[in-house]
Amino acid sequence: MSSSTPSTTDKPASTLANEPTATSGPAAAKKDTLGSTPPPHTPSGNGGKGTPPPASNSGGGKRGGSKGGLLALILVLILAVALIVVAWQGWQRLDSQQQHINELSQQAENSATQQTVSDLESRFESSESERTQALEGTLEELRGELDSYRSDVNSTLDDVLSQLSQAQDTDDRDWLHAEAAYLLRLANQRLQLEGDVDGAAALLRTADARLADADNPALTAVRREIANELAELDGVPRVDRTGLYLALNAQQERVAGLRLSQEVEERAVTSGIEQPPTGTFQRQLARFGEELKDLVMIRHHDEAMETLVTPEQESYLRQSLRLIIEQAQLALLKEEQPLYEASIDKALELLNGYYDVEREATQSVIARLQELKQAEIEPELPDISASQQAMANFIENRFRSRQQNGEEGGDA
Questions:
Q1: CB 368 within 8 A of CB 232
Q2: CA-CA distance, 135 to 122, in Å (whole number)?
Q3: What is residue 260's DSSP assignment?
Q4: What pLDDT digit, counting tens, does each position of 304-350 carry?
């Protein structure tokens, strides 16, 4: 039994001693056990009994190799741990040095930024102070120039006033004369440019009141001319342009609802047949002929009939009449008498030619337009420049007399 069982001791001891040991522990113990398996017993001369041979040295070599591999593995592990610790410490030092370098660079940037900001602030303050100084200097120069200009103006005005006081001996009446002359000139402009009769008359009355306050007999001629001009203005007919404009506008709205002369009146068609025809066919035909005679009407005209107005022509006709009345309103505002009368005549021509003049509404519009045509929108305006000329002559004569008196006083 024992001779047939394979054993690891079949290999030489030197081979087992040279093989590397890769495991330890139980596996190594197992190998030691297998390595120490005794060789098979051989029969001896004493009846199969004998002593076992001495132990071989291969078992001791195996144990020495296993211990050497274990020590090598432990050294490798220790070396790896030491390398990891050293690497970790080195990485920490490198990280701390990098952080320190970043902090130094950040501090350098902050210091540079603060230095730049401080430089900019100093430059800004210096430029601001320089600009303030320049502005103050400019303002001082402007104040000096303004003061000098003001003093020059005051001195010049004083000289002019002194010369005027020496040349003329003015009094309160001169201001009244100047105001009256201004009012007379304004009255002429109001009448000639605007045609405002009432406004011109009011200005003439105000000028006459100023001359009455002057209480100078030499102004009698001027006041006489003012009185004549007021009488002429009172004789000018007053034109109510607003009333005429509104009247034309009312007639324009009425014309829009008038009926043309050729419009066909709408009538309800009723049949005289109250009951359906009965009886023979001849009686029904005769009754239908009688009803047909009542529906058809034949008229004889000696003159040719005019063609009916189409809807397009009717719209154009009504629009033309509206525009003609608006033209009359515009002539009223511009005070153009010929255009005003011509526009109303054209409107009357269209009404008489195309509208139903037999209707009372049409006749009323025609009568009102004829009445508005008689209105005088451009009355003849008088000439009121005589008072203005007389006042100008009075002021000129007064100035000449003062100059002559001054020259005589200087010669004396």
A1: no
A2: 20
A3: B
A4: 445 556 777 778 888 889 999 999 999 888 888 889 999 999 999 98
Question: How buried is 387 (Cβ within 10 angstroms: 0-12 exposed, 13-18 middle, 19+ buried)?
Answer: buried
Q: Is 374 helix (H, G, I), strand (E, B) or coil?
A: coil
Which own/partner pairs from 210-217 qualify as long-range (CB within 8 Å, at least 24 positions apart)?
210/176, 210/179, 210/180, 210/183, 211/176, 211/177, 211/180, 213/176, 214/173, 214/176, 214/177, 214/180, 215/173, 216/173
Q: What is the pTM of this model?
A: 0.40
Give 143-157 pLDDT, tens digit per residue.
888 888 888 888 887
- 355, β-bridge pairs: 260
Task: Please name every residue paired with 260 in a beta bridge, in sequence order, or none if there are none.
Answer: 355
One-letter amino acid of 17 = A
- DSSP per-residue letters across 168-228: ----HHHHHHHHHHHHHHHHHHIIIII--HHHHHHHHHHHHHHHHHHT-GGGHHHHHHHHH
Residue 261 burial by CB count (10 A; 0-12/13-18/19+): exposed, middle or buried? middle
The token duo for 85 is: 């610790």
